[in-house]
Amino acid sequence: MIDAEHFRRLAEPLLASPGADETEVVLIGTDSSLTRFANSAIHQNVVERNAEVRVRAVVGTRVGVATTNDLSERSLERVARRAIQSAYRQPDNPGFPGLPEPSFAAQVDGFRADTAECTPERRAEMVRVLCNLAREKTLMASGALTTESAVLGVANSRGVFAHQPTSRANILTVMMDDEGSGYAERSDRSIDAIDAEGAAREAIGNAERGRGAISLEPGNYPVVLGEYAVAELLTYLAYIGFGALAYQEGTSFLRGKLGTPIVDERISIWDDGRDERGLPTGFDFEGVPKQRVDLVVQGVAIGVVYDSATAARDGRASTGHALPAPNPSGPLPTHLQMGAGETPKAELGRDIQRGLWISRFHYVNVVKSESAVLTGLTRDGTFLIENGEIGRPVKNLRFTQAVLDAWVGLGALGSERALVESWGGAVLVPAMRLEAFSFTGVSET
Amino acid sequence: MKDLTDRALDAATAAGARYADVRLERLERQVIVVKNGRSDGISEGEEVGFGVRVIADGAWGFAASSRVEPGEIDRVARLAVRVARASASTWRRPVDLGERITSIGAYATPVRQDPFAVSIDDKLAVLLAADAEMRSEPEIAVSEGSFECQRLHKILATTEGSWIHQTLVETGGGIEALAVDADDAQRRSFPNSFGRHHATAGYEHFLAMDLPGNGRRIAAQAAQLLTAKPCPTEVTTLVLDPSQIALQVHESCGHPIELDRVFGEEASYAGTSFLTLDKRGAFRYGSEHVTIVADATILGGMGTFGFDDEGVAAQRTTIVEHGLFRNYLSSRETAARLGEPSNGTMRADGWSRIPLVRMTNVNLEPGDVSFDDLIADTDRGIYAQTNKSWSIDDRRLNFQFGTEIGWEIRNGKLGGMLKNLTYTGSTPRFWGSCDAVCREWSMWGTPNCGKGQPSQTAHVGHGASAGRFREVQVGVAR
Prior knowledge:
The complex is a heterodimer of chains A (445) and B (478).
Chain A: H1 4-15, E1 22-38, E2 41-59, E3 62-68, H2 73-88, H3 113-116, H4 120-136, E4 140-156, E5 161-176, E6 181-188, H5 196-209, E7 219-225, H6 227-241, H7 244-249, E8 269-271, E9 293-297, E10 300-301, H8 308-313, E11 336-338, E12 354-358, E13 361-368, E14 373-378, E15 382-386, E16 389-393, E17 397-402, H9 403-408, E18 410-422, E19 425-442
Parallel strand pairs in A: 7-12
Antiparallel strand pairs in A: 1-2, 1-4, 2-3, 4-5, 5-6, 7-19, 8-9, 8-11, 9-10, 12-15, 13-14, 14-17, 15-16, 17-19, 18-19
Chain B: H1 2-15, E1 19-35, E2 38-56, E3 59-65, H2 70-88, E4 104-108, H3 120-135, E5 140-158, E6 163-180, E7 185-190, E8 197-199, H4 203-208, H5 211-225, E9 229-230, E10 234-240, H6 242-254, H7 259-262, E11 292-295, E12 316-321, E13 324-325, H8 332-337, E14 346-347, E15 356-357, E16 362-364, H9 371-376, E17 380-392, E18 398-410, E19 413-419, E20 421-426, H10 427-432, E21 434-451, E22 456-474
Parallel strand pairs in B: 4-6, 9-19, 10-17
Antiparallel strand pairs in B: 1-2, 1-5, 2-3, 5-6, 6-7, 6-8, 10-22, 11-12, 11-16, 12-13, 14-15, 17-18, 18-19, 18-20, 20-22, 21-22
Helix pairs in contact in B: 1-2, 3-5
């Protein structure tokens, strides 16, 4: 792990490189381990150490980026030269606002030593316990246990200097036999907080209940979406519409809708990278402190997240959501939350006469960004709800649905929330009941 | 370099590995993006590292590091053995790699013009010219073009005696135009969507796309799509263009023939496969017009190389022969479970990842009808072009795709333009409904094939022609 002083020693000569008006140095270091299992045995088991330095050189309004993971003095000098040369070769980019100025970023507690120090033997033991639970139920366990410690450092020639270690532990598992399957996952900064056995029992429960699935005709059904399913939808919404670039270019589903109701008034969505209930991080890849950004408040679309380039275009300040430059995709919220409701999860289906309980979605993709139409399939636990009770398992169904339209028809929000890993972070969401969800096909699985 | 690879293999053996391999890699990469008439950033990267894969106590272990130094090589090799021994605590069937592989050789991508030797100015000039063409259309809100190239040097050494040096060069790029009005936004891309028309080739591949010559055309199509009719909801005849066929092959054939997936090794992530072992040689995957091969030897494909990451020489394997399912993609370990040699498809996404069974170039073989004759022979249907959306279930049966654009086919002629085109089906029924494959054939590169945990992105190829499919449900999402 490269500590703050080591990063400073790496960065300072690069920031002083002659030829650039401004320079930014980003360090991304990871020590990552993943123990993967299938058929109730470990079949892949990997450990990786890497550290990459990215130099962004600015000449006037021209920007060049060069990267390397060879941190020798000679290599770093070369990468700085290449970034400057790239910048000089480009035409002017009048929209480039310059590198961010320094601003105060309070430390965020995103690191746990127990995760960083987790051994291969401990990972294997956790997996062994989980596989044994599967065998007891004549199920096959598959999944992955990840432990990762990482460091992000950002320094620029305007005075930004930020350095933060983080850690991440995650276990996910699918328990299955020829007739049914169930899924569960757990995430935390600390491996000590990961309840692998609890995840196993959750997945086993759905797998056992999933035996003997029936086919259901496609159509509109009221549904209860479990936290994994809600997290998947919210993550895709973030990708296609909660970033400023998509809004500015006209492809966001929020275009023309800021300040207006877009979903049920009980739904509020925000991004908060500093919330320690998630996998917190204090600043973005430009060194800008992460702000809490309200995206939807009581059903009304309020805002989008910004990096420095999109913020300058709208005459605003960055909200601390930049990805590594160059980034044609724009800023992205990676620590989303949806507020909880008042209904215990177990009671969400009580008012449904005939509908579906959906644990999880699979292979979701965007059909049309502008109207937030997504498609995907149910997986690892789809059940019929009849007269308020969860009953027979159902074969997987394909949905094609404008998500915001479905969320207008919110029935209830769960009172508990679960942390679910997503692109670059994690989301914290409740389960929800929806009055209608559109299923357009039936899978044979 | 041999001193470093020997050191890794010796350290692993001394620590107790009965088999070890080491891959030492160096990757150079350049990406140029132009957006709305301006450079949106140039990125040049280099990456080095090595990974040591071992079998100890009958189980797999792997460790990797970016620090290519003697002390680190020793640490990583010993760690890989420790990881393998931890794996063995749950492992019930010792890993069997089958026959020894002792390949010694070298391979380099044939390149006419080194993409790194061409100046950034020249590349920018092509992209800016294409951008200007796209922006001549007033409805275009966003125009974007990209160039990308990479050169990968990799050395594989194994305790069985393999020593292989390969230099793989890839070049690619594309353009896209986004038209926006008060009610809608529509995108057109060329030659393929998501900037993914890549090849193992040099700068000649980028120039051959003629991006400036196609900029105005695709921008005009994006603008026309704003007022085009939406795809109807109906069951009809569907003609797919080669690029969409390529993705259809990728999702509905390329993934389910991965033998590790068939054995359940991807169950927790992307799923399993409907092409179970009992179906080999006995299952009708498609119609007689459907022949699919996996060919790592063909020039230009993104899945073209000399040897895979287990040292197995590149091969051509028949997967589907006139509709009959024949074979899988395999590794040494998975093939050994069938008592067969590997057909050479193990590839890793860089030095820090283990090799997995990956598509090479999984190609739909050409038919004998011309595209013009195919359209002329179609009374009523839809012609769909350029992928926009894709999704398929966890056994690779139920799929749904969207394309950027379509046209009605009426009385043997292309007619009105259609937008928001989607179609859905089930894999064997869909390929069983194929009643024609065109003879015009081209290679498409997919540099974003995801698989595995930790996530790996493979670069794979698909040769494809346009094809016709009967009784397909279209217009799922209007």
